[in-house]
Design brief:
It is a single chain. This protein has a three-stranded antiparallel sheet, with no helix packed on it. It folds into two domains: 1-133, hpI Integrase, Chain A (Orthogonal Bundle); 137-199. Helix content is 51%, strand content 10%. Helix 1 runs antiparallel to helix 3 and helix 6 crosses helix 7 (166-172). By secondary structure, it is mainly alpha-helical. The N and C termini lie far apart (53 Å). It is built from eight helices and five strands; from the N terminus they run H-H-E-E-E-E-E-H-H-H-H-H-H. 25% of the residues are buried. The chain has helices at residues 6-17, 22-26, 72-91, 117-129, 138-149, 154-161, 166-172, 174-198, and strands at 33-34, 39-42, 44-48, 54-58, 66-69. This is Site-specific integrase. Keywords: DNA recombination. Residues 1-187 form the Tyr recombinase domain.
């Protein structure tokens, strides 16, 4: 990914490290990033509206509104992208159309990316790199499954995913959770085996 444009490096990093949805990534603004505490607030999303016109949706009253902890490496990338965007805005101030928002993922005129832009880039990226194609949204599943296998509690994973109810997480990732639970049982069994040998 290091040879890809910075905004795509950040986009994929957030999808994997923070399990953000495509629309949540697209709606991310600079004032939602707390670099000191390494957190990002998710309270809006961008999706397709009528006649394919992008629509900004407020999520403040939604259960999927959340504050997510972000790895230091991703915070560094976000800072770099913010600086890059600021420089772009200063150089092309006469072209800047966006007056109300400071989008992290923006075009040269400050407007946010179109909802299908990341999907199109991802499809071309996987083809160019010879990577087996999966949906962009499936990066969330990959990350969630990884967290389960690392032993992270299902409640924490559910909160990071922005699920309204932990049952949604259990239903979606039940197989991975059962596998992790079986592995835990195996580790506990090892403790008993060691004790018997010691006795």
């Amino acid at each position: 990914m290091s040879d890809e444009p910075l905004h795509w490096q950040v986009f994929i990093s957030l999808a994997l490290a923070c399990v953000f949805r495509r629309g949540e990534n697209l709606a991310l603004e600079a004032n939602k990033i707390d670099r000191d505490n390494k957190q990002v607030t998710i309270d809006q999303t961008i999706g397709g509206g009528k006649e394919w016109k992008p629509k900004i949706k407020d999520k403040k009253s939604s259960p999927s509104t959340r504050i997510v902890s972000v790895p230091e490496s991703v915070i560094v990338l976000l800072k770099k992208l913010y600086i890059s965007n600021s420089r772009m805005g200063n150089k092309a101030s006469h072209l800047w159309k966006e007056k109300s928002h400071n989008w992290i993922f923006c075009n040269e005129d400050g407007t946010h990316f179109y909802p299908t832009t990341p999907t199109t880039w991802w499809r071309r990226f996987t083809k160019r790199k010879g990577i087996r194609h999966i949906r962009l949204h499936d990066l969330r599943h990959t990350s969630a499954t990884f967290l389960i296998n690392q032993g992270v509690h299902a409640k924490i994973i559910s909160e990071r995913l922005g699920h309204a109810d932990i049952r949604t997480t259990m239903d979606t990732y039940g197989h991975a959770l059962r596998s992790a639970e079986q592995e835990a049982a195996g580790k506990i069994d090892t403790l008993f085996t060691r004790k018997e040998k010691a006795d």
